[in-house]
Design a protein that fits this description.
322 residues, alpha/beta, two-stranded antiparallel ribbon
């Protein structure tokens, strides 16, 4: 046995990819198991690679304080300890957008592009509020004063068991859906060995972590992208040089990272010929940019409920209306 632990980890992720494909093929042979089994398999996989503080919710819908609502989400990933809010109507689970860190859509062999784009757009159109109030180590804080997290949108993941033999098929799907999903995971069969495994595609793999942070924490779109935005938020910023980054890795430099422009990309985390190990590193890096969901805006939701009651003509006292 090879004693190099890195080699063992590398091999384990490639073996895991092949094993997952075989499990799904077995489930597909029994149609009654396919849907639930597929989701459970992905929950188990993501459970093993992301921090334990995250919880997984099946079959939920995501809402905002303006009454916006998403389509059903196969798997929602939330920090339940930090934001323990899942509103329910009987068995229907409704999760505020501020609490959601990641959403996962699971598909089988059918990949309806138009419907998938609409599914993703409904989540993007939800309006997260930054009016939460909480005690921090340095005192009481409100999200309004946090310039690095003015909005919030979850990391969007599409997983599919649609088998592809041609690299061009996955590339075409990435080009079509890559702006709507941050990660696309699809089964692919090697033409030479006939072995199947999952491939991971990230259309914006070459974008900087600053670019990703603006999209996840400030909901900036390509149309809204402002090259001076980072300078406004971090006056006097300086770029991290390769030597500084190396020194960081070696533990030799203590930099105030929020005041820096980090130029690393997800592409720098790509491990050759090992897509699931790459996914582990890339996904956890983005989750560290989000770190926690937004401070929960209790007042925004309380106001939304009161406004709804007013529209219905419900009467209540002056003190209750505040």
């Amino acid at each position: 046995m090879n004693s190099n632990p890195l080699k063992l980890i590398y091999d384990n992720y490639n073996e895991l990819s092949q094993m997952m494909v075989k499990e799904i093929e077995l489930a597909t042979a029994h149609p009654g198991l396919t849907g639930s089994y597929r989701e459970e398999m992905w929950v188990k996989f993501f459970r093993d690679i992301i921090p334990q503080k995250f919880s997984f919710v099946h079959g939920a819908m995501i809402i905002d304080s303006k009454g916006g609502i998403s389509n059903e989400v196969d798997i929602a990933v939330i920090d339940e300890q930090y934001t323990p809010y899942i509103f329910q109507y009987h068995t229907l689970k409704l999760i505020p957008i501020e609490a959601v860190s990641m959403v996962i859509e699971c598909k089988s062999t059918d990949l309806p592009s138009k419907q998938l784009k609409a599914w993703a757009d409904k989540i993007d159109n939800l309006d997260a509020k930054n009016t939460g109030i909480a005690r921090m180590a340095t005192g009481y804080a409100t999200g309004v004063t946090n310039a690095t997290q003015t909005k919030s949108r979850p990391i969007k993941v599409l997983v599919s068991i649609k088998n592809s033999v041609q690299d061009s098929t996955i590339t075409n799907m990435t080009n079509d859906l890559g702006q709507h999903f941050d990660f696309i995971i699809q089964e692919q069969t090697d033409k030479d060995s006939s072995e199947s495994r999952f491939e991971v595609q990230v259309k914006n793999e070459d974008k900087t972590l600053g670019w990703w942070g603006r999209r996840l924490n400030q909901h900036v779109t390509d149309e809204q992208e402002n090259p001076d935005l980072e300078i406004v938020l971090n006056p006097g910023k300086q770029l991290l040089t390769d030597d500084q980054l190396k020194s960081l890795e070696d533990g030799g430099v203590n930099l105030m990272l929020p005041q820096q422009s980090i130029t690393n990309t997800l592409e720098n985390l790509k491990i050759p010929q090992n897509p699931l190990l790459t996914l582990n590193l890339q996904l956890n890096q983005l989750l560290m940019l989000v770190n926690n969901p937004m401070l929960f805006p209790h007042f925004a939701y309380a106001k939304a409920f009161k406004d709804m009651l007013k529209k219905q003509g419900t009467e209540f006292s002056a003190s209750e209306s505040k």
